[in-house]
Amino acid sequence: MTQSVRDELYSQEVASPEKFKFDESVANVFEDMIQRSVPGYGMTLSLMPLIAKRYGQENSKIYDLGCSLGAGMLALHAGLLKETKIIGVDNSQSMLDRCRQNLDQSMPKATFELLHEDILETAISDASLVVMNFTLQFIAKEKRSSLLRKICDGILPGGVFLLSEKIEFSDQCIQSEMIKLYHDFKKRQGYSELEISQKRDALEDVLLPESIETHKQRLAEAGFARSETWLQCFNFVSLIAFRD
Ligand SMILES: C[S@@+](CC[C@H](N)C(=O)[O-])C[C@H]1O[C@@H](n2cnc3c(N)ncnc32)[C@H](O)[C@@H]1O
User: Fold this and answer.
1) Which fold has domain 41-167+208-242?
2) pLDDT tens-place string over residues 118-166
3) Domains of the chain by residue range
4) pLDDT per residue over 65-93, tens digit each?
5) Closest CA to 34 of 164, 193, 172
6) Substitution site in 90, 118, 132 for ligand 1 pocket (most atoms within 8 Å of beta carbon)
7) Do 1 and 99 form a contact (C-beta atoms < 8 A)?
8) pTM above 0.90, yes or no
9) Cα(237) to centroid of ligand 1, in Å?
10) Residue nearest ligand 1's atom 11 by CA
11) In sequence order, what are the residues at sequence separation of 6 or more whose Cβ sits closer than 8 angstroms to the Cβ of residue 155?
């Protein structure tokens, strides 16, 4: 991976922080930001080779929707036993520039393609595996069902979909305790109270979490035969959905 720069984007007090976007300044610190902000992120990546190994089918395609710097693509590649094309999609050019550098450096012999486009426009076909790690949460809620239907329709028999998200809990007590634990986690990761609260303000109305129940229901309505949580840390989960 390109050299990781410490995330200090929200360390100085500003009168009204701008809404969060995946621009050059975020791409520059993103590796550090996601590792220090998402509990279980490292574990998710470290287990993805097993998923790729089991479900990656020969001559199929694997998609990483919202691929950012390519960490997921690298994890998938590490597990693949068969000739499979990995396609990364992101609508941030700053992310994709760094992603290409990372992939050229770390998997020079692999077959991969990077698409600079909105995942709502991405054509999905012949996929044995589709991954969307912490990206659906940035898509308008009313567009999520058709996106998941398109993904399910593009997955081959025997294929799977991995969906990782920040979630909220319908039980308000659980919600409030999980948020407290999550903030404890961020403090332990070196973020100050100011950084935590300014980032929260910047993400308001940009990152839109939903409950696990809503995600599971939407996956079922999109056509997936079954889905289950395979990893959870506080209010961050990863679900696996089976096409059949
Ligand atoms: C939180 S990051 C994903 C992290 C990444 N999957 C990983 O595991 O390291 C969300 C990414 O999705 C991209 N993104 C957000 N909305 C998008 C959209 N509508 N189409 C394509 N990419 C999008 C952002 O540019 C950003 O790189």
Assistant:
1) Rossmann fold (3.40.50)
2) 999 999 999 999 999 999 999 999 999 999 999 999 999 999 999 999 9
3) 41-167+208-242
4) 999 999 999 999 999 987 889 999 999 99
5) 164
6) 90
7) no
8) yes
9) 16
10) 66
11) 124, 127, 128, 130, 161, 243
